[in-house]
Design goal:
Strand order of the largest sheet: 2-3-1-4
Helix content: 55-70%
Structural class: alpha+beta
Shape: elongated
Distance between the termini: 58 Å
Number of strands: 4
Length: 293
């Protein structure tokens, strides 16, 4: 039985038989040749981009950051002092507004006040900062926008969960003003919480005093007197302690070094951007020249 002659397969060129690694090397070699051929173009673009970035960095207004480190004041636990004698007076204490919770509840309340919008609004109002925060005449200067700008662009509150320390950062153009605002904000928070504690303790004492004639049970009267004693201590501390809710561990001082902008980062960004644009422009020019040829 006869067989036909073998049919030759497709012809594979020497270029197609080269390993892919060789092809990759050729591409990289071409790119390198393009870069060498357009080195002056790449250099000019890089210098221009770096110069623009440096000009922006020099023109940007320097911002300074002042930091105040505080911690909450640990108060005695009313429940621990008189909880064993309260018995059925939990409802009475609740009506009076007397907290039978641990000191952690007071800490949470103090931190909530520190981060509240109303405190920022009061701070801006007392220091007349609306025009300072919104100097642009084309933008309506309202309290709402001033509070928004202050909370988002001026003040930052950070809490270390491990140590319990709270850091208040204030970023502003003037380092002395930044330090003044950071310390003043903590002082205002303490004043608000101190005033609230005085008002609440005064009302609680009046309420508890009114309950004493309404009961003849000695144990109940004794528990009420214990509550009055606790509220009197709170009232006394609120009247004499300036740092009622927050103790300043490290007050803010005017910083000597700016926080931003970091000009070196601007320059590095401009340098790498210029290199990328220059290489891209050189490759495009080479591709167009090859297509035209």
């Amino acid at each position: 039985m006869a067989f036909d002659a073998a049919v030759p397969g497709p012809v594979i060129s020497a270029e197609e038989r080269r390993p892919k690694d060789d092809a990759d090397d050729i591409d990289f070699a071409r790119i390198w040749r393009v870069i060498r051929g357009a080195k002056y173009l790449i250099l000019i673009v890089t210098v221009v981009c770096t110069g623009i970035a440096l000009a922006i960095a020099l023109k940007t207004t320097p911002i300074f950051r002042a930091e105040t480190v505080i911690t909450t004041v640990r108060s005695g636990d009313l429940a621990g002092q008189s909880g064993g004698q309260l018995g059925g007076l939990a409802n009475i204490a609740s009506l009076a507004g007397v907290s039978l919770d641990s000191g952690s509840a007071a800490d949470r309340e103090a931190k909530a006040v520190l981060q509240s919008r109303s405190l920022v609004e009061e701070f801006i109002g007392k220091n007349d900062l609306i025009k300072v925060l919104i100097p642009d005449a084309g933008k309506p200067a309202s309290m709402w926008l001033a509070v928004k700008d202050f909370k988002e662009g001026v003040m930052t509150i950070r809490e270390d969960k491990r140590t319990g320390l709270v850091t208040i950062d204030v970023d502003w153009e003037d380092p002395a003003i930044a330090a003044k605002w950071a310390n003043g904000f903590v002082a205002l928070a303490n004043e608000r919480l101190r005033t609230r504690a005085i008002d609440e303790a005064t009302r609680n004492i009046a309420f508890l005093n009114a309950q004493i004639p309404q009961t003849s049970v000695v144990e109940v009267q004794r528990a009420i007197y214990n509550l009055i004693e606790s509220e009197t201590k709170t009232l006394m501390l609120a009247n004499v302690r300036v740092e009622f809710a927050f103790t300043v561990i490290d007050p803010a001082v005017p910083p000597e070094h700016k926080y931003r902008p970091r000009r070196s980062l601007y320059v590095l960004f401009g340098l790498f951007l210029g290199l990328a644009i220059g290489v891209l422009a050189a490759y495009v020019r080479s591709a167009r020249a090859g297509a035209a040829g």
